[in-house]
């Protein structure tokens, strides 16, 4: 296997192994100094607003409703949750598999904003940073580079559409837990490591106030992504980690 300057697998090999975990983990790489042109797009505020509008229309149509039946903040939250999962998943996998944090600005990301599944995402080829062997230090790096970096900026841009910061942080916490669950299913031998690393992230700011555990030890977020409100009469099903499950028993 080709090695990079840090003596570990080269970025292309890391990304290839991560992509094998599933569609939410798969990313492409592009030269940091030369982002790809269309159909790749930046994650700009206007394009994210268009994404939320498309999600709103999709959710309304799925429920047999008119386009204005779904609240804009619901669509913005659902759009945010999907995109947060796309950024969190490869970062968690790179940390668990290789001990390497990802570090990049959201403006360096490129995506293809099509509806209907995980969107294609491309990261700059210098996003993979040197290995950090100690789990606590690796979690500090991931929290600083990702949670306080591109994920915070993604939340700010979609938060402009009326979603509260509390919900957006809850979405990010849910994405971290979901990524660990998906990685554990794809690579059972890494399940304990994935869960342990996710727990380290969830115990750190800004996510430490966003998650709890059920009596059985399952993850439970402290907010709701609001997707249940997209259904007719706002009576949709609750997600498995939703705070409202505790309220309703």
Description:
This protein has one domain (11-248). The chain is an alpha+beta fold. The protein starts with 10 loop residues before the first helix and ends with a helix. A hairpin with a 5-residue loop joins β5 (211-213) and β6. The chain has 8 helices and 6 strands; from the N terminus they run αββααββααααββα. The protein has helices at residues 11-19, 45-62, 72-98, 135-147, 150-159, 165-186, 191-202, 243-248; strands spanning 28-30, 41-42, 110-111, 121-124, 211-213, 219-221.
Features of this protein?
single chain; alpha+beta; 4-stranded mixed sheet; two-stranded antiparallel sheet; 8 helices; 6 strands
Task: Give the strand order, joined by hyphens, for the main sheet.
Answer: 1-4-3-2
Structural domain tally: 1
Rounded to the nearest angstrom, the radius of gyration is 18 Å
| Proportion of strand residues | 5-15%
Set out the fold topology.
Layout: H1 11-19, E1 28-30, E2 41-42, H2 45-62, H3 72-98, E3 110-111, E4 121-124, H4 135-147, H5 150-159, H6 165-186, H7 191-202, E5 211-213, E6 219-221, H8 243-248
Parallel strand pairs: 1-4
Antiparallel strand pairs: 2-3, 3-4, 5-6
């Amino acid at each position: 296997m080709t090695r990079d300057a840090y003596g570990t697998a080269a970025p292309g090999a890391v990304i290839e192994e991560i992509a094998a975990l599933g569609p939410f983990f798969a990313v492409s790489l592009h030269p940091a100094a030369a982002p790809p042109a269309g159909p790749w797009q930046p994650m700009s505020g206007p394009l994210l607003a268009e994404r939320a509008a498309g999600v709103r229309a999709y959710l309304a149509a799925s429920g047999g409703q008119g386009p204005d039946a779904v609240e804009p903040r619901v669509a913005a939250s659902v759009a945010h949750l999907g995109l947060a999962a796309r950024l969190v998943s490869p970062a968690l996998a790179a940390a668990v598999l290789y001990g390497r944090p990802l570090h990049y600005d959201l403006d360096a990301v490129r995506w293809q904003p099509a509806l209907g599944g995980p969107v294609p995402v491309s990261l700059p080829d210098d996003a993979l940073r040197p290995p950090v062997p100690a789990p606590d230090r690796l979690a500090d790096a991931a929290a600083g580079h990702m949670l306080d970096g591109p994920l915070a900026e993604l939340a700010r841009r979609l938060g402009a559409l009326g979603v509260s910061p509390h919900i957006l942080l809850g979405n990010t916490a849910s994405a971290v837990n979901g990524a660990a669950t998906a990685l554990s299913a794809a690579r059972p031998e890494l399940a304990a490591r994935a869960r342990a690393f996710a727990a380290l992230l969830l115990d750190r700011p800004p996510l430490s106030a966003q998650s709890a555990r059920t009596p059985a030890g399952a993850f439970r977020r402290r907010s709701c992504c609001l997707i249940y409100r997209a259904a007719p009469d706002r009576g949709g099903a609750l997600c498995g980690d939703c705070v409202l499950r505790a309220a309703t028993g």
